[in-house]
Each structure stands twice: as structure tokens, then as C-alpha cells.
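Hi R.,

As promised, here are both runs. First protein below:
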Amino acid sequence: MNQHRPKLWTKDFIIVSSVNFFLTLIFYLLMVTIAVFAVDYYTATTSQAGLVTGIFIIGTLIGRLYIGRAIDNIGRKKTLFIGLIFFTLTTLLYFLNIGIAFLLITRFIHGIALGVASTATGTIAAQIIPAARKGEGIGYFSMSTTLATAVGPFIGLLMMQKVSFQMIFAFCLVIGIIALFTSFFLYVPAIETSDVNKQGFQISSFIEPKAVPIAFITLAIAFGYSGVLSFINFYAIEVDLVKAASFFFLIYSAAVLVSRPFTGRLMDIKGANYVIYPAFIFFAAGMFVLSTANRSFTLLLAGALIGLGFGNMQSCTQAVAVKLTPAHRMGLATSTFFIFLDAGLGFGPYLLGFIIPITGYGRLYGLMAVFVLLSAVLYYFLHGKKESMQKRVLDTSASA
């Protein structure tokens, strides 16, 4: 039976996953170091340092909005080249210490470049993964992002203790060049683009309508997870678990890596609901455990549960967005997914920052556990119910 399964781990799949890993590694490495750089080199205020970090995500959103529409007119591989060249050249600007305003511009442009390049990698990956293994393949592809979210901050924090910021930027530049060089060996099959050239301003030219319902779910869960990304270190200081917190994202990534081979295949065989509903429960449980953390074990258990929950939901919702969309609009579907994901991760900390003075960190995570469960109800109405009905129809026709 396995002999008839289409091959997933092709040369091109490995290359595009590797390029995505390199891009995300640089993104997360700079996310944990650039605010300190702004304070040390430009005596930036706390709000300015936060803006230096956050303006990158605004740039990424703008890059995705544009390229989601244009990618199939430009060409998917050509878009990747443009994005990688743009991304690598922008890294050189970090070496110019002209002022805080120039650093903000650099971060904004760098974000646009990432939006272009990472939308291209996601679209190419979705295209070259066999249809019968779409859930499994996107699960493995998104593992490149998951690994980078753990490795990037780890390298960044380590380098800040050992080397200068100029060396950190040089490291990012080398990684960018490696990503660009690797992409030259990537083959992307041509596709039909018969009705992607519509004229005039239309929302559907920037957003894929069929992907919007599942993208809203992605926005909701990313909003919940943003509280973990942004405030886990502050919470760890408050509960005196700083050492354990340094391993939080490693445990998170390990949980994703262990579970991803099973959840991807389960989604392809049984459907998204069989993965996403349990993932909501794991995610909510992880948030609740985090809210009560008073020992290292509890904190790390929360990391594992959140990895099983959010880590798997992220790849499954991306797979759903792609499966619902015609091949020639796959770029828009990928762009739509990431726009909503970035919006949740980017604006979540800002909004949650108004709640924390009232609730504190622990109670915030307790509230986020409830929010995640409510998001499961939203998922049922936006996609889960429809998927269940389609699955029953398929099962009935298969047994007839």
C-alpha cells in the first residue's frame, strides 16, 4: 500500500522547507535581540524599542498583502528570488548606525521582504506537496517554522552574551546568503494562471474569500498564543522560574516535533476535525496549567501542552486554507492565512497589555484558556460543522 503513496520528501520539498527555516530563524533571532540593540546603541525608550520590534510585523503584513495578489503573475520561484535578495540586502542596513528613525525604516523594509519571501515558500510548498498528503506535508513544512521559533531565540540570546551586535548581524547576513544560494536548486512546476489577472480593486484580489473563515480561527488562536510569546519571561520572573522558562520553547518545539508525524497523517485520513478539536483542548489545558505554574515541572508541562495544541493547530489550519482553494489562488490562500496569523501574533501583545495591569500574568493565562475554548465553538460554526457534513457525505458514498 505504501508503494502507491506519492513521495513527499523530494529534493524540492527539502529545499523549500530549509529556506523557510533560514528565513524564520533570522526573524526570531532578531526579534529577541533588536530591542536591546535599540536601547544600547540609540538609548531608545521602552516604547521605541517595542516599536522597533513590532514595526517588522507591520511590514510583513504589507508584503503579504501585495505579493499574495501578484505572486502568480510574477512567478512563484521568481517571487522567492526577489524576496530573498531583498531580505538579504536589507540585512546590510543594520550595519549602518545612522539613528533610531533609520533603524525603524530598516525594520519595516526587512519585514516587507520577509512577507514576500515567506509567502513564496509557503505557496511553493503547498503546490509541490501531493494532494493525498497535503495535511501531512504542510505539517512537516511548518515544522521548519516551529524549529526556527526555538533555535532562533536560543542563538540570539546566546550570541548577545558572547559577541557584539555587529557579529549578530553578520551571522544573519550569512544565513540569508545561504538561503538565497539554496533556492537556486529549487524547481517549481508552472501552473495555469487563467483567471488571476482581474483588473480593478477587489478584496478578492488581496484576500482569498474561501480561506477567510479558517483564517479567523488562526487569528483567534494566534491572539491567545501571543500572550505566551510576549510575556512568558515577565511571568517567569514574577513566579521565580527564569531558568525553567529558558527551556519553555524547546519543550514546546519537542512536543510539536513528536506529534506532527501523527497529526498530519490523521488529518489526511480522518479530516481536520479529528486533529483540531483535541488540539483546542490541549491548548486550553496548557494555558490553564501555565496560569497555575509554581514549579519548573508545571511550567514545562504547560509548554508541552501548548505545543500539542497551538503547534498542531497552526499547521492544520494552514492545510485547511490551502485545501479549500483552487490551485491558481494558492498564493492568495497562503498569504491570507499568514496575514491573519501575523495580525494575531503582532497586535495581540498590544491589546493584552491593557489587560495585564488589571489581571496580572497568571490570571491572564487563565482567561486565555477560556478564550481558547470559546474559539473552539467559533471553529465549529465557521468550519467544523461543514467539514463533518462533508465527511459524512464522503463516507456514505464510499460505502454505497
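And here is the second one, sequence first, then its C-alpha cells:
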Amino acid sequence: MEDALIIRNNEYDMKDFDHINSHNKKLMYQREFIQVPDRMLVKRMIYPEGNMITNHEHHCAHGDFVLKGTMHTNVGDFGPGDFVWFKEGYKMYHGATDEEVDVLYMTNKPLDMVYYDEPYSHDSDDSNSAIILPKDSYDMKEYPHANSKTKKTLYQKFFVEDEETGATIKRIIYPAGCMIPWHTHTCNHGFYVLKGKLVTNVGDFGPGDFVWFKAGTKMYHGADKEDVDVLFMSDAKVDINYL
């Protein structure tokens, strides 16, 4: 991989990435963005109407940020902007019912699947095994953060800080003019742009674009003339070293 991996939303069609689920044999679509060896996987997935991934578990923690549609799970239904994270080994089901659902999917470790045939109902849910963050359950302006270098205020809401790997997922809003100057991280990390234009040393990125930086890469990023709203993910604990 080069120092930065760039995947622009308008340069691929999800329908070119068809996948047949090994258990229910139904068609879905998935576009892998990045798989760090022995670490984080990030991919975009579309579940067509009626495609439910039946009772299963993973030997990794993992979660979904819903981009479009409603994702049905054993811990509730989630719409655009909602986030749900399942702890490792938690038995679950999820997918689409009466409409297509488009999600950004992330793990803390490589993905596997273990299926179960017995029924599983809402009555046996253990909500302590899932982190649930509907978009209307928090206000980003309640999570200000002063950048240690520039002292400018940005907003960040931590979704996940994984105890085992340090993998971090958070939502960040860079207000107009808030630029993080040249720096490096010792973790691999990336951005999925939700709204606005993310300005970086490797180009500008709009809604639906994904950019992933290799650990140790020299970079800058932030907002120019408009606010930018991004989902940030790293495969290990985040640090920052200014140049």
C-alpha cells in the first residue's frame, strides 16, 4: 500500500461487488476498503431488501454506521447516522427487511463467521454486549476539543475505544478554517466523509469518499471554507506527533 489509500465514491459502483452469503445464499454487495493484517477491516456493505444475516457470532468486535435505509438487528432498528457496535462473541442477527440498507462496517480484528440454527429473539437480548448510538442521542457541539497545536476548537464524539487492540472509531466535525497541521500517527487510520469537504495533503474528499493513511505518514487535514463532518477510524490507539 502507498502512504495513502484513496477510494472515491464516484469511482466505483457497489453493484459491481456482489457477494453471496455463505449461509442464506442471498445476494448482497460489499466493497472492502482496507484490511490491515491481523487488525481492522473497513468495508461498505449493501443488504438488499429482505436479506437478513441469520443467527451468528464473530471472533472480533465489529460495528455498523448506517448510511442509508434501516438496518434491523436483535438490539433494535437503526437508520441513517446511527451507529451500533457488537462485542466479540455476541450472538446476533442483522440485515434488511422491507428496504435496502447501506452501511459502513468496521472490525477491531480480522472477520470470521460462526452460524447457529436455533431461534434467537429480542427477549434474550443482552444490551450490555452492544454499544448503541442513535444519531439523535447526542449533540456534537457538546463534545468540543481544543487542538493541542493550533488551539482551535473542533468537535469529536468517541464511539469506540477497543480495550484489546486500541482500535478507535469516532465522529469528528472540523469547523471551517480548522486545519490540523503537519503531523504523524503511529497507528494506521482513515476517514469516511459524511458531509462537507475534507482537505488533506493527498487531495480533497467529499461525501462518501474514503482515505486511509499508513502509520508514520506525514500529513495534514481539516476544513477550509466549510465545516466537514467525518467518521474517523484507527487500527490502534491514537496518538499525534507534530512536525
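A quick note on the second one: The chain has no helices and 24 strands. Let me know what you think.

Best,
J.
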